[in-house]
Design goal:
By secondary structure, the chain is of the alpha/beta class. Helices cover 41% and strands 24% of the residues. The protein has helices at 2-16, 23-33, 38-48, 72-79, 93-100, 114-120, 139-149, 169-179, 197-206, 227-237, 250-264; strands at residues 60-66, 83-90, 107-111, 125-131, 150-161, 211-224, 266-267, 270-283. The protein binds S-adenosylmethionine.
Length: 285
């Protein structure tokens, strides 16, 4: 009982003092994930492809690839051989390094915090792409800024995690945190910024004037022979970016995490994790 109260008080105080996993922590994590992010793309990029809409050959498009990471969406756009001017923005220098290898005149690579970029941007874009980065932003701040930098009639291609993704992962981390209270550096609150499926995403965007063009829900389950491999997948793909920063010394609690995964994530003799997401295209009237 005392242990539970101590734990809850510790969490509450951290949230009150805003001592939680923050922007800089995510940046540090993505700088590390950059080497292995291809694992994510191997499994999930076929859904990202669905938001990269066809482009007319007789038009020049000004495009923003927001939180572009290693530049998967930018590369897809270049494959279309259309007239494009792409601004690819991300705050992780190591993720951007992969994109810089492209050396393509049609792409300007911008190393910046996303919100700062949008706040100071004077240009207007025909299309904004936003792939797999919604939880790192406050959507109430972000979507009006998207609107600010988009032309009337402009389009937004978006793919993002939704509620129910990485099911039971939060419980696993809470359990390990509870059992290792002295090892907690700061908790994490990413779950608060996930929409309730595609309908939730549509509601969020509708408030800022975005109209649905097409929208779908998706779910992919990835399974592994060993619990260790599931944990490595979460860390190497960025799917659990930030969670390493919860603990003072991650290596000390790694074994506990593996044990908790063995209990919580065992399905048919394997260890399985789900990725639930929504993806589609919106437009500004
Ligand atoms: C999962 S990756 C997605 C990369 C790319 N959009 C894709 O679809 O493959 C998330 C990206 O968001 C970036 N990011 C997170 N917070 C950011 C911020 N505040 N400003 C700019 N980039 C940010 C990370 O650096 C990372 O590259």
């Amino acid at each position: 009982m005392f242990k539970t109260i101590k734990f809850l008080v510790k969490l509450a105080l951290s949230f009150m003092k805003k001592e939680v996993v923050n922007k800089e922590d995510y940046r540090t994590e993505y700088n590390k994930v950059s080497r292995t992010y291809g694992r994510w793309l191997d499994k999930m990029s076929r859904f990202t492809d669905e938001i990269v809409m066809p482009l007319e050959s007789n038009q020049t498009y000004k495009i923003l690839d927001f939180a572009c990471g290693t530049g998967y969406i930018t590369r897809k756009l270049l494959e279309k051989n259309a007239n494009v001017e792409i601004a690819a923005v991300d705050y992780s220098e190591n993720m951007l390094e992969h994109l810089r290898l492209l050396k393509n005149d049609k792409v300007s690579v911008v190393h910046s915090d996303g919100i700062k970029f949008l706040e100071s941007a004077n240009e207007k874009f025909d299309v904004v792409f936003f792939g797999w980065a919604l939880p790192y932003f406050n959507h109430k701040k972000l979507f009006p800024l998207f609107k600010k930098v988009m032309k009337a009639g402009g389009k937004l291609g978006i793919i993002c995690n939704v509620e129910g993704t990485l099911s039971r992962l939060e419980d696993i981390f809470l359990k390990v945190m509870y059992n290792n209270q002295d090892e907690i550096a700061k908790p994490m609150s990413i779950g608060f910024n996930l929409p309730a499926g595609s309908a939730g995403l549509e509601n969020w965007l509708k408030k800022y004037g975005f109209e649905k063009v097409k929208l779908s829900d998706g779910e992919v389950k990835v399974s592994f022979e060993r619990a260790e491999d599931l944990l490595d997948w979460l860390n190497e793909t960025g799917a659990a970016a930030g969670t390493k920063r919860i603990f003072k010394e991650y290596e000390k609690i790694r074994e506990d995490l593996i044990e908790a995964i063995k209990i919580e994530k065992r399905v048919n003799e394997k260890y399985e994790i789900n990725h639930k997401f929504a993806y589609g295209i919106f437009k500004l009237p």
